[in-house]
Amino acid sequence: MLTLLTYPAAFGVFSASPFCVKTAYMLQKSGQRWQRSDMLDPRKMPHQKLPVLRTPERLLPDSDQIREWLESQGADFDQGLTDIQKAQARALIRLAEEHLYFHVVQDRWANYEVWPVLRRTFFVEIPSLLRNPIANSIRKSVVKGLSFQGIARFSQAEREDRLERDLEAISAYLWQSPFLLAEHPTSADMSVGPMLAAMRATPADTPLTKRIKQDTLLNSYVDRMEKAIPLL
Questions:
Q1: How many helices (DSSP H) and strands (DSSP E) are in the chain?
Q2: Which residues contact 180 (CB under 8 A, 6 or more apart)?
Q3: What is the residue-averaged pLDDT of the chain?
Q4: I want to staple 38 with a disulfide (CB 3.0 to 4.6 A). Which of 8, 45, 48, 189 is the partner?
Q5: 127 — pLDDT class (breaks 50, 70, 90)
Q6: Which domains does the chain have, with CATH numbers?
């Protein structure tokens, strides 16, 4: 049996990490037998991050590498799509994972209202006397990384404008069909859906969470994804 090494469930979703949710969706759709194993400290994992898939042969890091392996075992996450649609799926995945994701991280780690909840959730295994210094140090590193990546250099209004253009692009697809490229979830949905779900699940009433919750089209899409591919 395959084992998905994942961050634990948090904020009402399968995992606090949308990449772990994406991988769980792929495993569920692949038809493979699998189980989850939760961890909070990925430092001993390949690439020092999650998700990681434990196969009979080795540990597979990174959701894209996991996808490639599952496809080599017979999975087809874009069944019925044309070559053009598969190219569109690739672009939507990159939109989600290389742009929307950093809005989620900014909304959680750089938000003083959200941070206390994150600290209690993600650092519970650290002894209480060390918890705050270690957690604050990691947070400082994450926020510095957001500045290096670029998203933190924009004002709140500028970030919201950039995000809005992406959400409009996603919505244009969803006006045409219940999922992004088909009547059923495909690879694009398995990335975009978890990212929107993560935005909605952030444990505070932020402009980002309100933007998703108040959008009937996007909000219902997230619900539809969760019903279409029920997770463990």
A1: 10, 4
A2: 89, 92, 170, 173, 174, 186, 188, 189, 192
A3: 96
A4: 8
A5: confident
A6: 2-72 (3.40.30.10), 83-228 (1.20.1050.10)
54 close to 2: Cβ distance less than 8 angstroms: yes
- Two tokens at 214? 């108040």
Distance between CA 61 and CA 55 in Å, rounded? 11
pLDDT at 117 exceeding the cut of 80: yes
Per DSSP, the three-state class of 42 is coil
**3-state SS, residue 125:** coil
Residues 6 or more apart whose CB falls under 8 angstroms from that of 19 comprise 50, 51, 63, 97, 194
Which residue type is seen at 139?
A: R
pLDDT in tens, 27-67: 999 999 999 999 999 999 999 999 999 999 999 999 999 99
Torsion of CA 195, 181, 84, 18, to 10 degrees: 20
Contact 196, 104 (CB under 8 A): no
Residue 158, token pair as written in the block: 């500028």
| Residue 30 amino acid letter | S
For the cut 90, the answer to whether the pLDDT of residue 223 exceeds it is yes
